[in-house]
Specification:
By secondary structure, the chain is α/β, with parallel strands linked by helices. It is 26% helix and 29% strand. It has five helices and twelve strands. A six-stranded mixed beta sheet has the order 4-5-9-10-12-11, covered by helices on one side. Strands 1-2 form a two-stranded parallel ribbon. β1, α2 and β2 form a beta-alpha-beta unit. α4 packs parallel to α5.
Length: 190
């Protein structure tokens, strides 16, 4: 953990598919470790309210709010009322036949959970009040497969920007993905 201190990193997102690999207690221990070092931790917490709380920082007279979410989480890892976990931005998976021929691989359609998207938009609107810039970090997308953007991702981007996000920093895919400009704001899918 000393590397984080030496690197001068001020905000740490724990919204990742590995944050709860060892369960809730180690996640809380990790949050405490970073906070004791003077770091701001986002995207995970003691409950949903804490996990969705932005980091507010000032740089060169500019107030910046940073939020973090995770779409790549296992069942039970989403923070809830009185429940340790990650700030979720989950997606449903639907499978539709591509052809009439049996055995043909289906088309995979993903759609954001409406409740997660509405909560994310509420978080962004709240964060925009004290901040000039809102940055959204999101752990999402299809890993390893180059260029592919899942169908849930653009609606999440548009909803975030419509709510006031200025830049979206996507990660998890282990490969370079598209960059989208929507209403003059930028999303780096990965």
């Amino acid at each position: 953990a000393g590397i984080w201190k030496a690197a001068g990193i001020d905000v740490i997102s724990l919204a990742s598919n590995h944050a709860m690999d060892w369960g809730p207690d180690p996640l809380i221990d990790t949050i405490k470790l970073f906070r004791d070092m003077g770091k701001k931790v986002i995207g995970a917490g003691q409950d949903a309210t804490a996990a969705r709380e932005p980091a507010i920082i000032k740089r060169n007279g500019v107030t910046i709010a940073i939020l973090a979410y995770c779409s790549v989480l296992r069942s039970g890892q989403a923070a809830g009322k009185g429940k340790v976990g990650l700030a979720p931005m989950r997606a449903h998976n639907l499978y539709a036949p591509e052809e009439f021929q049996p055995g043909t691989p289906p088309k995979i359609v993903t759609m954001p959970y409406e409740e997660d998207m509405l909560a994310m938009q509420e978080d962004i609107r709240k964060a925009k009040k004290p901040a000039y810039v809102v940055v959204m970090s999101i752990h999402w997308g299809l890993r390893i497969v180059p260029k592919t953007i899942c169908t849930y991702q653009p609606p999440v981007v548009h909803a975030a920007i419509d709510a006031g996000a200025d830049i979206i920093l996507g990660h998890h895919a282990h490969s370079i993905k598209a960059i989208e400009v929507y209403k003059g704001k930028v999303c780096f899918y990965s």
